Every structure is written in structure tokens, then in C-alpha cells.
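Methods — Computational structure assignment.
A single polypeptide chain was analysed. Its primary sequence is given first, followed by the predicted tertiary structure written as C-alpha cells.
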Amino acid sequence: MTSVRLEHLSKRFGQTVALDDINLKVEPGELFFLLGPSGCGKSTLLRLIAGLDAPSGGRIYFGDRDVTDLPTGRRNAVMCFQNYALWPHMTVRQNIRLGLAAHKLPADHQAQRIAEVLRLVQMQDYSDRKPGALSGGQQQRAALARALAVHPDCLLLDEPLSNIDAKLRLEMRGEIRRICKSAGFTTIYVTHDQKEALSIADRIALLRDGRLVQVGTPGELYYTPRTSFAADFLGQANLLPGQVVGREDGAVLVKTALGTLRASGFDGAPPPNVILSIRPQQMRLASAASSVNRLSGKVVESAFLGESSEHVLCINDQHLRVMCTPPMFDVPGELTVAFDPADALLLTE
């Protein structure tokens, strides 16, 4: 297993800065995600690691080996593209054999390795089929088998589930994690799908406009985002700009357009201007007796989501999203909700 280290990596296309001073380390055997909106630089970063593009500055290391100036073929990094890039006139077995033949392995070693990766991706029964006779998920597993067969130092996945339907995408998330962790290879995975990243990543790097916003485990990024962008991108968040007006019983008092609200758990002296972040699912329907962070508003939008329902309240011309589990069907014209001060995050940007 090999670590991947990026030091002050940057990439410019003319006057456009695609990546700016990226410092990052992916641990050996880690399933590491590059996450962010379209145009944030995640696919460009993956191409730099693969050697398909050259950086404008900085260095790339696989373990202690500086691979910055090495061509793709000498890095031993294998990239799986969105369209799988399987040869349509070849069977699964023949597609896998291509990479092994390029490494000039003996025929018996090739046969052994092909059998191993077919078992790993559970494609033994489909090895003699051509890509046109496979489902989208089977094609994805065939592409993974071809990549894994050559024992790459680093496996690079560029939005591998973007071309399959939603139900199959859910099934393939777990399959990709099982395959990558069973194989033990260091894997870097690009996606713009937050749920995909949260459900299977060991760690995530969140990018925006070519810069790293935050790096951490899925739980760290979801529960302790450092910026309002991170809070809103990883799931939904109600973001309320406000001013700190004091403290009371250990809670910070924040004056917002919805009134003065309480937030606890903030260490040190908060800045005067903050953004209060509350997840919609952390809102609860409140009784008349509720007094802390109690808000009432007109219901202007409702959506049934299956296991839950989402409702938008209008309070002082501001919209507040509330998630109800189990779903609420008979929605009144007005709802009163509340949230615990411990569930409110104070962000500075």
C-alpha cells in the first residue's frame, strides 16, 4: 500500500487558476474522496495525480517517490473513467488481460491474476461476455477488475457511478467500498454526490474554487463544518447571519432575523458577527410549553420524501427548512418548531 502526498500543488490554464496551493496526504489503503461542486478542481486534481496533466507548481509523491515529472505509465496509477473505457469487441476476460499483457507478465501469471480479480468483483460468471451484454453495474465492476489486476500503487476513480440509474447507484456504493477495501489499494475517488461521499469514504477533501475548504472524516465534515459552504454543501443547513449580543447560562445569544437564539458548545470568545447553522432534521415540532429557540411560521412548501417530509416555514420573510421523521401528511397552515442550543453551530464564514 502506498501513500499519496501533494505539496503546494497548483494548476493554471492561462489566467484561470484551477487549483491553488493544495497540500494533502492520502494514507496507504485509504478510500479518499475529492468532493465539491462542478468546476471546483477535483477532476483536474485527479488528472494531475494520474500524470495526465502537468502541474503549474508543487510536487506529487507516491510514498517517498517523487512522481511529479514521471509519465503516466511509470507512476503505476490506474484511472477508471466515467464511461468505463472497455473495449466493446473484447470479453471481460480479454479486457482485463490487456493491462497484464502490457506489463509483460507470463501467461500463467496473467490467468491467475484474472481469476483473482474476477472473484474479487464477483464477475466470474460474466467473464466471457462482451460489454454490450452487461448491465451498467457489471461494466463498472469489469472496469474495476481491469484496474486492480495490475496491482496499482494508486487507484483513481472519476465519478464512476455517474452513468448508472439511482437505484443501482445505491447498490454499487457498498460494492465499490467492499472491492477497494478488500483489495487494499490506496483509492482516490472524485464525486459531486454528497451522499455517495458520506456513505463510503474513509476521509473527504472538500474543494471550492480550486482550494481546499476542509479535510476530515464524513462525521467530522457533517457535524463540525468549518464554514457555511461546508455546512450547506454536505447536507442541508439553515444558515442565519447574526450578531452575538451576550451569554446566558453558558449559551451564546445570537440576534438574527428570526429573533434572538441560543447556541452552546462554543469555546472561547465568539466574534461579533457569526452565521448560525442548524440542520433541518435537528428541528423538532414544539409544544406550547417550549421556550428555548422556539419559532413559529407559515408553511409555504411541503415535500414528501418517503421516510421523511420536508417543510419550509416563512418567518419574518425568512425561510426555515424543517425535516420530519416519520413524515407529516396532514400539514397545518402554521408550524411551531424548536431546536436544542447544542445543535446550533456558530460559523465565522
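Note: Helices lie at 42-50, 92-102, 107-120, 136-148, 166-183, 194-200, 218-223, 228-233.
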